[in-house]
Design a protein that fits this description.
The chain is an alpha+beta fold. The protein is 60% helix and 15% strand.
Amino acid sequence: MMTRKDGLPTLRKYFFARFSSGAAIALLIMLIVSLLTADALSSRSAGRALLSDLKEGITHGGPAGMGGGLAGMGAGWRRGRGHGGVQTITPGMFEQYAAAWPDILRVQERGEGYGHGRAPWAGEPVVWAAVRQEDGTVDVSWTRLSAVRAAAGGTYLLVAGAIVLSFAVAAFVTDMGVRRVADAVGSAADASRRMAEGDFRASMDVRDTEELAGLSDAVNHLAVSLDTTLTQLRARNEELARLERLQRQFVADASHELRAPLTSMSIILDAASDGLMTDEEKDEAWPILRAEVRRLSRTVSELLDLSRIESGREPINMEIIDVGRVVEEVHRWYQSLPGKLPAMEVSIESSPDHPLEAFADSDALHRCLVNFVDNAIKATPSTGRISMWAGRCGDDWVEVSVSDTGGGMTREELARVWERFARSERSRSSGREGSGLGLSIVHALADAMGGQVGLESELGSGTRARIRLKSSREESKDQQRI
């Protein structure tokens, strides 16, 4: 139930306060109409009874004894009680009576009749019944209307009591309905308060009416929606917190990556400027300076590329491409490089009649594969092996993977592999070139093409990097983000 606050009435009191006056007026009107109707019906019934008695007296008394019989009936039954009597009206008296009692003409015409109202021979309203005899006279039996009403008093009380009782029952039933609605509103308010306090298990189950069922469904849906929304907000807050940590880590890593070459360059230049280096040391320092400049330039360029791709400013030309051709171009490029590289093999599951096609950007795919192969070459000894594979993965995807027989990665390294500057400590200590941005760029390019990337590795068992692309334009339409 709802509790009162600040002196406000409950829903039940408010309802009855608003509608009690209207209910009282309706009750009064019903009583008046019912009593008037009961009065008319009792008068009509008394008139019919008088008419029946009058006809029966005429039939049993016969023409000769008709008047005496009627007079005796009236004197013995009604006059003796002071409530009525029998009146005989001759044809010569019609005009005299017709002026004050027009019903005499109707009885003369129809032969009989009954009714109630004023009569010339009585000082108050009466109920009467009249029958025309063969000689044209009219016998009228009558009784006072007050006597009929007194006799029907019990009926009036019964009608009035029934009406009052029906209103009381209606008020009780209405109170039950209002109480049920008040309980439903209170339940909704209680559920709302519990939801405001964070308890989304609160529910409402009132099914008495369509509206209350709708309110219950709305409250329950609100609880589920709020729970879902807050869960999403918590997940988003956690993601924002993670991104904030990544941002701090990015700033720290970027500072480290840029500070090291800048520090090295600053030391060499200061030493050369202060005359602390011999000509031979200067000749040895220039290649170091050039290497550090190239490292800085590559890092800055990759940062700019990653920013453009993630912001959508890098153009991605999506079209149906031959994936096998892109893989073969990458393979030929590495085969043409000088130096001793790990053995490289390629396997493409396609045919001239059925080329391996996907909806993607060929340049972006080429760049992703080059990054995979570069990482594989850095991690694999010259005696190792690198394998490139391309084929269908289910009905909707085309997959390209690069596997190596290198040293692999730990679980901690694998968990951070797609983050910016995510270079392992072994890579840093071994002096391998790289900024740690390559796989971040690959991930951003795959997202822009509506594809997926993945990497599987175990320490000492090599690494397998893959990229999946949608095999048709329609399938990639919802995935594409340019």
